[in-house]
Design goal:
This protein is mainly alpha-helical. It contains five helices and no strands.
Length: 121
Amino acid sequence: MKEILIVGLGGFLGSSGRYSLYLLTAKTFAEKTYLSTLAVNLIGCLVIGLLSGGLVKINQQSSLFLITGLCGGFTTYSTFALDGIRLLKAGLIAQFILYSSLSLIGGLLVCLTGLYIASKA
């Protein structure tokens, strides 16, 4: 239960940070809100790389708060990128290609499916 609260607090801060960044960029790039998503994804990837790479030594609870909670709440793309790099480092090229392809193409397809279903309801 303690671990869930730690992840939840990190997730709250990450999600709040994501929305705050959106508000900042929405003023500057009103018609290009995708730039906010791009910024969040790139920043999240940098942060999860720094944390996972050991820039700061962290224990299990700090990892749950910072990596799973904060980065996960800020952007799941950072976790996607880290998982992909781990597959590549392990030499699992076929799994990397399948994982990346299914994540990108599959995500777009199921989002499109959801939009279609919602439009028919």
